Fold these 2 entries.
Entry 1:
Amino acid sequence: MQERRINISNRLGLHARASARLVRRATQFTSRIELERADTGQRADGKSILSVLLLAAARGTWLIIRAEGEDEERAADALAELVEQKFGEELSDGVF
Amino acid sequence: MASSSARDVRLRGVGASPGVAVGNALRLDERGRQQFYYLDVSPTQVRREVRRLHEALDQARAELLEIKTRLTRELGYEHSFILDAHLLMLEDARLLAEIENEIRARRVNAEWAVRAVIDRVAEAYRQVNDAYLRERTSDLEDVAMRLLTILSGRDKFELSELDEPVILVAKDIWPSTVAELDFDRVLGFATNSGGITSHAAIIARALGIPAVVGLHDVTRRARTGTPLIIDGAAGEVILRPSKALAREYARRREQADARLERVIQPTEAAETTDGGRITLRANVEMPAEIDALARFGAEGIGLYRSEFIFLAGLPELPGEEEQYQLYRRLAASAGEAGASIRVFDLGGDKLTLKGFEEEMNPALGLRAIRLSLRVEAIFRTQLRAILRANVHGRLRVVLPLISTISELREAKRIIAEVKQEMAEANVEHNATLPIGVMIEVPAAALMADLFAKEADFLSVGTNDLTQYMLAVDRANENVAHLYQPLHPAILRALSHLVRVAAAARVPLEVCGEMAGDPLQAIALVGLGVRVLSLLPASIPLVKNAVRAVSLERVTALMKEALKLTTASEVEQLLTRELPRQAPQFFAAWAGEH
């Protein structure tokens, strides 16, 4: 199992568009993907948008991404990168 | 039911788009709340119900994909991303498993299972102390209703196949509704919610459809088939009008149509009676307005307000690719006449910027070009997207809120750098990109001769120029009466700008609301302005005004106006003289205003 700990840093947190991008990416891997809020321990299925939205993870929330399966390492890296890059925005200097 | 048959019931709302519509209501929320019954099914029927569920899901997905394509085409990607979330909800394995489980375990019909499971999920969302998430229950409900409508097998109401023209009555007009509409058959909108910047209002103005919003309970008072009148200018809706009243409004509508019809031919030029050629360009905010360009006879786009993508509720900054797609469409639609893209005209009030404090006075704060130069990454991304899209047409950039020459030089340096980087990286682009300065700060107006030497063109934003020159916030009702576009100071500034632009041989255009008001537009023409940029729907009216006047005579008239001492003297002169000079247009027009 692969684990990554990351901070939600985009302005609006895991809102609909960000969640949609995360779930789209997660479903590209065969591994099981689990997200956990570090503060509350609440967990979500990374391939279910309804479950991810329910985390209501605002900006500043620490999230643990767990991937388990054949492509777990690539999956964990890809998802952590997506969050770090604020869900596909180009700007990396924390402007938005 | 005496009250429901009362005649001439007047409702006050907010006039969102001018014009008169007389017709019958089509109430849009009717397909919303159907009843779904609980049905016990036998074990052998369970498989059939599961199959029905999967078929409904496939169909719902196909419908959503089609809407998304159409929405992206008509309104731009910024309105369509929410459909991605809807699509993912339909593909959500957990949700499907739960619905399937409901069918199997409780042996119920698919409709009941969908309703029960989605209600449970929605309840879980409502429990979370997060306003944004609570609002997402409306997305869930949207998805649920789509599934249920398909499952129940009723004929879905086809908005795109309206038999007769109607007036839409709805709580609000949403992007997904718009995507399904046949606009040739929509006479007007009346909505419960919304202000003049709501979706419904913007869409109505873009398409030149009369609309009144903010009516609170019009969906309760009118039902499908109720005759009504919409008076967009007055912000009034009249339910069940008496025959006499309906006739009167129908006549007003016909008069307005007749006046427009003479020039609605896009090929007819905006030419004065003595051969003065005026160019009328379009101000554009949304991609939907692009389709209206040809219809209203616009000669290209004089002002594309690129920041609109933020105001439409987009939560994040769109990336280079998304911007490129949008600008490319703009470039292609504007054709030879080209399109001026005003770079993001935003302040910290529109974006939450890390490291920037809320400002006491945002109108005078870190905004527009000041922000672009401070946070260069945003500016560079936008420039790359514009330069790439420029391959497909003739784009120009306009820099907003310029107050010093050094800002123009700095922006030009960045533009040159971006071009060079793109050339070195072999990114396909068109480097022929005229750079214009938006003249809206008094300092820039006074120094226009210097700007004209270093910019490719000048674009005057009369709204902001008036606000900054007169120090009046027109949204502040205590001082709104002091907001006077015909103030002698504004006329002097405009006259000065025309002179220095002509001396430097750089194009000058005027955008802003003055250009969309026939009287003020003719005042601009008389001052020497030859290019106006205005709302697409206002173009036919202003074109008519231009075709009714003589350039020589309105020029002489404005020479007189420049000698006057107050805005009301100027207005009196114009309202007295223009109907004399051009009775065929202004006499009728003045009678209505």
Entry 2:
Amino acid sequence: MTVAVSKLTNSADLERLREELGQRAKAVSRSIRVCIGTGCGAKGSRKLYQLFCEAVEQSGADVKVEAKCVGCHGFCERGPIVVVEPGQIFYQRVEEPDVPEIFRETVLGGRVVERLLYENPATGKRATKAEEIPFYNVQERIVLGMNGIVDPTSIEDYIAKDGYKALAKVLTSMTPEEVISEVERAGLRGRGGGGFPTAQKWHICRNAEGEAKYIICNGDEGDPGAFMDRSIMEGNPHFIIEGILIGAYAIGSEQGYIYVRNEYPLAVEHLRTALLQAREIGLLGKNILASNLSFDIRINRGGGAFVCGEETGLIASLEGNVGVPRPKPPFPATEGYHGKPTAINNVETWANIPQIINRGGEWFASIGTEKSKGTKVFSLVGKIRNTGLVEVPMGISLRRIVDEIGGGTHDGKRFKAVQTGGPSGGCIPTEHLDARVDFDELTKLGSMMGSGGMIVMDEDTCMVNVAKYFTNFLQKESCGKCTPCREGLSQMLYILDRITDGEGQVGDVERLEGLAELVKATALCGLGRTAANPVLSTIRYFRQEYDAHILERHCPAKECRGLFRYEIDPEACKGCGICLKDCPTDAITGGKKVPHVINQEKCTLCGTCWEKCPFTAVLKV
Amino acid sequence: MRKGKPVPTVTIDGYKVEVEKGATILDAAKKAGVWIPTLCYHSAVPSDASCRLCMVELDRGDWRELVTACNYPVRGDIVVYVSSERAKQARSGVMELLLARSPDSQELKALAERMGVKKTRYPKVTESQRNCILCGLCVSVCEQLIGQSAIGFAGRGVDRAVAAPFRQPSEDCIGCGACAAICPVGTIKVRIHQDQQEVEISPFKSRAKLLTCQQCGAPVVSEQVSKLALGKVGIISEEFHERLQLCPKCRKSKTTEQIRTVTGVKDKVDVA
């Protein structure tokens, strides 16, 4: 949908354009939306989009058909996803050969291709629309609401879907103080991990002394397995820009920065396109929509250091210095970028703003718990059936996220824990699965909300190994400035290495706890102070696994090499000889159709037999 | 905590002192005569709070928070505990980590002893360049006081180290030795190479040409240091320049000579 757009000089222009775009949209009766988000894109959805475009061109049908790319729908497990209008027919796991069939049957013929619909594994029922799928119907999508509907590369498409309406409202009918009050009524708290009240931050920043004030959008999402911010930046960049513009008006800023990881090329590209479009149309620049707001945004690409996600580290990096955190106070709201008052918020926080303005703070505050309002986006990954991006109202129980949205763990595997809050979050075990998703409740359980990573673990996951993995990540990503983080994490890693190698000593758990408490209490920045969470939470809930490693030299989850054995189940073994042939150390003996045996003295525990056995007769014991 | 009072009262372990608004807890402690160990703090440069040795407990009403004394600004009346169990444990914990990293520094051992930390429970797991604890004082002094930025931090995390660019001898180094003077653990040393008339800042391997005394030939300071100092004082008298060519000893005897000539006194004159 491209319309020759002239510069918008006031909000009436914007409304006129919206109306015009709406008229044009009505003329297009059929549309095909192909997801080009991270997951679907990796499965080749770009090619699908091309094929649909070609089909549209060649068909020559009387009806107007439009194919468009959209951002992540969230159900990445089932990608690539294609949605056909009218009817919001939701096709999943679409492959190239399916394109002509979808086009012929659904787009032109109006019939549903049954085999491409989602089938509920519990009931066997097929779902035509997204909302009929359990993965979606438990969710409440505010931030992700337009992901999968708007074309992220088209400002017209965004405007047609009520885009920049909140900005126009703010500029024409609200004072900056009223904007801040509205956000305060909403009770919005920072979505980057800290959970600091956004309105309070803006208020401090607005009242801080100084002519120049800055706005920063933190898109340096560095948590392993997290892609919330990425999907918003890729799938709906104008949402973030509109939020930032409203923030700029509220605090009185003229310059904003979006700090994005360079590893997110599509996010950078979409943001850049969006900024160009907004500038062209007059939504960035001098006197936006005839108001006294003059504002522009620049993109800064991060070099990939995890510590640059910490606000003072990010600001240092933005200033051109080494990305190292500095002590707080002073906080960025009073002394931030180049020492000037700076409102720095996470991508998801900014993306919440337009809706709060459009629908009111009270509406937002009606969702969630007493102290945590609105929704939160999580990237649900790990040993779970439905991996993907989910947005849930605050206060929902972890169990509903894991079981209803995530569809539970894989067949026959027992759920063990869910890790929330990114690398410096904690692991929450089965007995606390009914805990509500809420900033304070998660902190009480020894974990945290963080930016929204959620990793599910089942019985095959060794919790000591999990603690080691995250401690290793944090030690590698520590900036090295302060002693406790640099030295303390290295000492913790040394002990964890020893435990998983089967050389743990009695007292190691206490030593770990002592170090963890020291790091937590004395580190300089938020990263360091939370870096002990993986160790502390696994000790708190899975102490018995540590003890098994140390006292019995045994890994209960059978993950730590050397702390379990491989054995062949004589009843299951068919004597096929595959393991015998593949064993690199000739540790397996046995004849044809005679159960094989592993010579434990020769076995190096490489696991080849376990991987190769077609009858799963090789067991870990 | 009362805000707005021009001279807030800080209560440290029960002692009450008044300090200027914006002073640090460490300033207040000094005034109260309470000793807080520090490593990365030096009054000549802004505090970086990186070593975390000066942890003290700050009373927040219903809870207490550990903060670094060297940079925590006093804005209103506060109550601080330096010798509470938690604060002591935090400080000795940090000291033990530092001792594990840099076991051979005599300066560090002496400080540990003064703190009552006899030995560390931890093994050495990170590599340090000649006991460097990465406090950053040398980097700050070189950048902010000398204005040369000849050294800086390289690497990240456990690989972090103080180095000249590309770990090569730096041409920006003027051989002033300020980094060596400020180093709290004796990592940085000034070496004089008599035969080459050069000064070397070790371990950075940067060298600078030394001026030698025109009378006795003893090394004085590096050429660049002399130039920098001259630029700073801005004296143009010829006599001053002549004197700069001499070592302190020869300068002294020259002064004695001159006084003798002027006063005619033949006996020994105390010019100091």
